[in-house]
Amino acid sequence: MAINAGAAPFWMERPSLTSRIVKAVALILIVTVMLFPFWYVLSVSLSSERDLLGANVALIPLHPNLGAYTTIFQGAVVTSALEVSIGVTAIGTLVCMLMTTTLAYGLSRTSQVPGTKFVLILVLGTLLFNAGIIPNYLTVRYLGLLNTYASLIVPGLISAFNLVVVRQFFMGIPEDLTDAAMIDGANPLQIFWHIILPLSKAVLAVVALFYGVALWSDYFGPLLYINNTAMWPIPLVLRLYVLQGQALSGAEQVGQPLPPAQTLQMAVVVIATLPILFVYPFLQRYFVQGVLSGAIKG
Amino acid sequence: MIPRAETAPIVGSEVRSAAGVRRGSESTVWSKVRRERWMYAFVLPGFVFFVIFRYLPLLGNIVAFEDYSPYLGFVDSPWVGLDNFRALFSSPTVGSALINTLIINGLQIVVYFPATISLALLLNSLMSPGVKKVVQSIVYLPYFIGWVVLVSVWQSVLGGDGLLNHLLNSHGLGAVNLMTNPTIFKPMMVLEYIWKNVGWGAIIFLAAISKVEVHLYEAAVVDGAGPWRRMWHVTLPGIRGIAVLLLILNLGNILTTGFEQILLQQPGVGAPAGEVLDTFVYFQGILGGNWGLSAAVGLFKGVVGTILIVAANKAAHALGEQGVF
Fold first, then answer.
1. Count of other CB atoms within 10 angstroms of residue B51
2. What is the interface size between A and B, counted as CB pairs within 8 Å?
3. pLDDT in tens, B36-90
4. Which residues in chain A have Cβ-Cβ distances shorter than 8 Å to B217?
5. If you placed Cys at A45, which of A193, A266, B97, B272 could pair as Cys (CB 3.0 to 4.6 Å)?
6. Does the model's ipTM exceed the 0.95 cut?
7. How many domains does chain B have?
8. Residue B215 maps to a domain
9. What is the reported pTM?
10. CATH number for the domain formed by residue range(s) A77-230+288-295
């Protein structure tokens, strides 16, 4: 991929000193602006009360401790919200991937399979319009999905955009490979499972990340469809404690003072962010490869 | 592939009646369907999903023409014709929500686009692949952070009780209100949006830049063009197609503004400054029970969005660009 091409071409002049300095300053500025807020949040979450007193600013926790985290994990609210979020994200990503890849494969040979072209147009049409919040809400309601975990997954099972990306990639797989397997007596399900999917790891990784991130950070879905606060996933709990400033209930320990509210709040932010930071480095190398194979070529 | 199917029966016998040929081709369609029955099994679940969750809800827009009540349902709710739309166009709150939406989106297009393109140009000009890679992974990161986390993080730095005000206070300076200030609410929304998306948005321009033919640069060098002129006369024209395409997609969404983002922060600044069409629909319809009016707003938004995207696409074709479809 030329994006990461190494050496400069021979005709390119060496950049002048000023332009290099300007670039370096710009880069440092950009990187700082992007990373500093995360650093600050992490730092506050690890600070002890002394670090936050008076004029102190917790840029670096001088007396780091995990008090906020232990307090949170001893309480029920965040832990149960974490369980909900992890469950919904894991199951949801799996089901979304299954639905997306099967449909993408089914629509990958529209010229040979009569009728699938129509389905493809139907799918692409949804890129142009959206029924709107109220009709979508009423659909979920009429299907009896209100206050179920399914309501967090089912309405977003297939994103047309992700479908296009995956389908585009499937279509780029040489037909010789599938033909050969067909002659060996493999049925399309076997071809799909043993040839198509393993060859598409890069794009599948990226699309899974998209679905996973969307499920993990979705807060409008649960806000709309789930009234029972015991079923809330982590974004809603985060909103309640950090943005609406409610005290973290059920986290009190007997005989021990609570960590400062600010560190508790920032610890919840860290907990909500950590899973994404954790998978990010592994999937990151597939970004350009996976995204562009679908988006640009098409 | 269709021609092949239609010639197949003719190969067998050249002297066939037209009817026979037609029957022959019909049977090949069916035999194709039978042969590919597996493919239909692949398509079916997804097809059902799109019908139920993307097309059936369109019928729900009938609510926009009713005085809908969930207890009466679609059929028994009284039909009010265009009353909801009359209310929509005469309502000052809808008007201000529309204006807020347009301002935020307008600012976004004007600021965000140049920002992504500049970032892509900057990244592209980096010589060291290592530095480029590190910077890229850092600037992509905020794209994957949800809005609740993002707003929380921004609050902790810029909010009333955040780092910035702490620093100002400890130096005896007055506090500044950035996060819940109605007058700067809209630029703040755009800034947050840029922070979250600028890196990811640059990917696509980076890719487009990498596809610009090298010999164009070489020719420009031969003609004595320096780096700036090469950027202006080669790189930027080379990515114009993609820029137009993204602009069209954005125009189609001009009435849709970062809904989750604003829903989270609108309560902090109040409706006059912070209400946009989507939050209006949510607060009025889902929470307020004003189903008919809010569905009418949603429908209006959807129809205008679709018309805009089709029109923008036509305009792009007229200007000689490729467009989206």
1. 12
2. 278
3. 888 899 999 999 999 999 999 998 888 899 988 888 888 888 888 899 999 888 8
4. 9, 11
5. A266
6. no
7. 2
8. yes
9. 0.86
10. 1.10.3720.10
